[in-house]
Amino acid sequence: MKLLHLTFRHEFSEAIERILDRHGISDFIRKPMIHGRDRDGKHYGSKVYPGNTTLVQALVEDERVGDLLEDLKSFRNEKPSHAHLRAAVIPVEELL
C-alpha cells in the first residue's frame, strides 16, 4: 500500500478526479483552495497572487501505482499549465 500525495492547480480538480476514477481510486482526501508557492511564485487566491493549489491524498494498492503515475505524467506533459502537478508516492508501513 502507498500514500499518493498530489498537488496541482485548483482548476484541474475535475480532470485529476477523472484520472483517479479511471484507476479505481474512489476514496481520497481533497483539500481544495489551499495557499502555496511553486516555481511561478505564490498562489494566495488574490489579484496579486492568483490561483490556488489543491492537495489530494489517497491510499493506492501497489499494483495500481505504476499505471496511475503514467497517466499523471501524461496529464502533466499535456500543457504548460499542467506542469505544476506534483506527485509523491510514500510507502505505508502500517494501516489500521
List the SSEs and their pairings.
Layout: E1 2-9, H1 13-22, E2 29-34, E3 36-38, E4 41-43, E5 53-60, H2 62-78, E6 86-91
Antiparallel strand pairs: 1-5, 1-6, 2-5, 3-4
Describe the structure.
The chain has 96 residues and is an alpha+beta fold. Among the domains are: 29-58, no CATH class; 61-90, no CATH class. The protein has helices at 13-22, 62-78, and strands at residues 2-9, 29-34, 36-38, 41-43, 53-60, 86-91. The strands form two sheets. Strands 2-5-1-6 form a four-stranded antiparallel beta sheet. A two-stranded antiparallel sheet has the order 3-4. The longest helix is centred in the C-terminal third of the chain and has 17 residues, at 62-78. The mean pLDDT is 90.
Order of helices and strands: EHEEEEHE
Low-confidence runs = none
Q: What is the β-strand count?
A: 6
Could you describe the largest sheet, including whether it forms a barrel?
Answer: 4 strands, antiparallel
Oligomer: single chain
Which term fits the overall shape? globular
Helix count, DSSP H or I runs of 4 or more residues:
2
Overall pLDDT metric = 90
CA-based gyration radius: 14 Å
- Helix content percent band: 25-40%
Rounded to the nearest angstrom, the distance between the terminal CA atoms is 12 Å
In spatial order, strands of the major sheet run: 2-5-1-6
Structural class: alpha+beta
- Taken as a percent bin, the fraction of beta residues is 35-45%
